[in-house]
């Protein structure tokens, strides 16, 4: 029997078949509480048969609950958020520590799939929330990305994330001193932008290989990937795109104010986001911020954009980030 989570908190796809009269279709299925599975659906009987499921040692799915909730953006757009938590660790009468993740670029869908690496957080009472903000493709590439999430509408990505965080606070799920946020690459740009917009809303942030010096990088056509990226952010040689990028570029919008605790990571051999982007951002951030919260910069001297290729080293890097988050949230 397959436990079906709420609509939009699962991910599924079908396999191709060259046999036209085949009586079954093979599916892959996952949800925030269901490990990746392979199933077959029988058209004649309507039965869904589980063939294989990813083994996850010591995992009991009955202990976890997934939900779908929505925040309302400033322009009235409904922003979906996928939520998962450990049921016996969640007291709905009081705020919980929340780990809010976002990406919102290139039309990429962040599907609500099972991730065993979240279990150490969930088992410590942290609620995981994934905000499906504009700039991704979760609600259709044409609308969610092309029309409302790129070029001169890119600010929607950042304000959507802030609205999602505000919704989490307004509904009593969490409070600003229990709210952690995380994003990598273009999601790191998201972190930099929202920290400038609403630093009061978050307790701690992890920005992985963050694209935070948007204006400088997009203005340098000698960088191999720059001209291709104009399709996402716009060409700063045109005044309208230059001014718009300048309005949200994290490095260019740092100010003298209090910021949350921040961990920034980079890879020395990163060909997509050069290490000097987060390095200069951290240097200026440390110079301007008016608080005593930690602002850590961790540059791996053997990694690229996608962190360590060694599986165990990659796990240790995630453990380092989680340790920082949990320490700042008071969950250790």
What does this structure look like?
There is one protein chain. The protein is of the alpha/beta class and 332 residues long. It is 28% helix and 24% strand. It has helices at residues 119-122, 141-147, 155-170, 186-197, 214-218, 226-233, 239-248, 276-288, 311-329; strands at residues 10-14, 24-31, 34-42, 48-53, 64-72, 78-86, 98-101, 127-131, 179-184, 204-208, 261-267, 295-300. The strands form 2 sheets. An 8-stranded mixed beta sheet has the order 5-6-8-7-9-10-11-12, sandwiched between helices. Strands 1-2-3-4 form a 4-stranded antiparallel beta sheet, with no helix packed on it. A hairpin with a 5-residue loop joins strand 5 (64-72) and strand 6. Helix 3 (155-170) packs across helix 4. Residues 1-8 have low confidence and may be disordered.
What's the helix and strand layout?
Blueprint: E1 10-14, E2 24-31, E3 34-42, E4 48-53, E5 64-72, E6 78-86, E7 98-101, H1 119-122, E8 127-131, H2 141-147, H3 155-170, E9 179-184, H4 186-197, E10 204-208, H5 214-218, H6 226-233, H7 239-248, E11 261-267, H8 276-288, E12 295-300, H9 311-329
Give a brief rundown of this model.
Helices cover 28% and strands 24% of the residues. By secondary structure, the protein is of the alpha/beta class. Helix 3 (155-170) crosses helix 4 (186-197).
Question: Which key features would you list for this structure?
Answer:
28% helix; alpha/beta; eight-stranded mixed beta sheet; disordered N terminus; 332 residues
């Amino acid at each position: 029997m397959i436990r079906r989570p709420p609509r939009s908190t699962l991910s599924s796809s079908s396999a191709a078949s060259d046999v036209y009269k085949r009586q079954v279709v093979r599916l892959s299925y996952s949800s925030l509480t269901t490990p990746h599975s392979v199933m077959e659906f029988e058209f004649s009987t309507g039965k869904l048969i589980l063939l294989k499921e990813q083994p996850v040692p010591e995992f009991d799915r009955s202990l976890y609950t997934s939900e779908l909730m929505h925040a309302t953006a400033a322009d009235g757009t409904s922003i979906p958020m996928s939520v998962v938590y450990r049921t016996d660790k969640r007291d709905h009468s009081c705020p919980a520590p929340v780990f809010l993740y976002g990406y919102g670029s290139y039309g990429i869908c962040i599907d609500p799939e099972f991730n065993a690496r979240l279990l150490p957080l969930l088992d410590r009472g942290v609620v995981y929330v994934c905000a499906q903000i504009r700039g991704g493709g979760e609600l259709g590439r044409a609308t969610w990305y092309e029309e409302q999430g790129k070029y001169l509408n890119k600010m929607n990505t950042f304000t959507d994330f802030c609205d999602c965080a505000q919704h989490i606070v307004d509904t009593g799920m969490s409070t600003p001193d229990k709210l952690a946020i995380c994003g990598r690459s273009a999601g790191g740009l998201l972190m930099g932008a929202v920290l400038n917009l609403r630093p009061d809303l978050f307790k701690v942030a992890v920005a992985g290989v963050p694209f935070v010096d948007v204006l400088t990088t997009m203005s340098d056509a000698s960088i191999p990937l720059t001209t291709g990226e104009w399709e996402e952010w716009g060409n700063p040689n045109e005044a309208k795109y230059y001014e718009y990028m300048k309005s949200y570029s994290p490095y260019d919008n740092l100010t003298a104010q209090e910021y949350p605790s921040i961990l920034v990571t980079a890879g020395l051999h990163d060909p997509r986001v050069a290490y000097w982007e987060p390095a200069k951002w951290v240097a200026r951030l440390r110079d301007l911020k008016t608080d005593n919260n930690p602002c850590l910069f961790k540059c791996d001297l053997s990694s690229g954009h996608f962190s360590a290729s060694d599986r165990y080293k990659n796990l240790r890097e995630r453990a380092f980030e989680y340790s920082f988050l949990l320490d700042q949230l008071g969950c250790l």
